[in-house]
Amino acid sequence: MSTPTTPSTAPAASPAPAAPDLETLRTTSDVLGLDGLLTADELALRAKVRAFVDARIRPNIKGWYEDAVFPVEIVRELGDLGVLGMHLEGYGCPGRSAVEYGIAAMELEAGDSGLRTFVSVQGSLAMTAIHKWGSEEQKNRYLPGMARGELIGCFGLTEPTAGSDPSSMSTFARHDGDGWVLNGAKRWIGLASIADVAVIWAQTDDGVRGFLVPTDTPGFSAVPIEPKLSMRASIQCDVFLADVRLPDSALLPGAKGLRGPFSCLNEARYGILWGSMGAARDSYEEALKYSLERLQFDKPLAAYQITQEKLVNMLLEIQKGVLLAIHTGRLKDAGTLEPVQISVGKLNNVREAIAICREARAILGGNGITLDYSPLRHANNLESVRTYEGTDEVHTLILGQHITGISAFR
Description:
A hairpin with a 2-residue loop joins strand 8 (295-296) and strand 9. The protein contains 12 helices and 9 strands. The chain is globular. The chain has helices spanning 22-29, 40-57, 61-66, 75-81, 98-111, 113-133, 136-148, 259-293, 305-334, 339-364, 375-387, 392-404; strands at residues 153-156, 172-176, 179-190, 197-204, 207-214, 220-224, 236-247, 295-296, 299-300.
């Protein structure tokens, strides 16, 4: 009869490989040399925002996400970093390029979609609406403080029964004497419960118009939507407008019709096509590092053909997605970017990012369902990103109309 192996005679376990250096992995993973397409200033900005994410977001995001807390204390730090209203000129705004804004969005979303979403709501939506369509008095009153993170804005377009079809919004603004009275409701409005000013879009007798509503105005209320399975380190609200009375000076004078809010949505969509690649890249890096360290059947997961195929497929889509983002950003900086091209980036990059995050979670096995690792958190967040600023279906129909000349929305 054979003698059972005892602990003293059992073979020694193979030591785990040394932890790979992240920057080395990033260099190896840039197979197309995409860093060579960025200027020295763009690379310096990336390093600055990446360092901020490493210092302020990564060490804390697990707790923020688990506890469903948006870290309000970080808002002024983001202002100091220069990422609020980053692409806007004048009025205390940073005035950086579209590519620089995209790079910042990508690095912030590598930390968490919720934090990038704050920057998007503040800058691409609320600040852009004021900058593009507001009066000089409105711009001077709000934009400098918003750029510094001293004032927070929100953007009220979506309604409980009007998401993908904002033309059917029921919020109405009635002109009354020398002012306006607003009634209605909005849903999924980021930051509304902590905002100082809300950009509210409403039907009027003269079409859709935008209004700046100080959130302490009687009749305005915002209630955070809870609980959520996605964007837990972010705030989205139901907003209620009950006989909200505003002066004529609250009207955004330059915006008339849906062109006003859509111009802001395109700014946000542009940031998303970059940001989603940040979530994808972070998930890929997590899976790559883990697969090189994790031993199964006496060798690293990365040594198996199936794992390598997964990693390669993830890397290919990230490299293509970042290349698409850079190209789109260069078009935007040149002033030649068309809305349909933004739809290409938003549809493709978010769709691929979700698939990458899910595949990364699979490589992590059971450990991947914990908050010790980022991919499933990113995947959950991206379900929101995939939905807001135009669903996959909406962007598919935008592209379908472009290539066929036929609108299939109705």
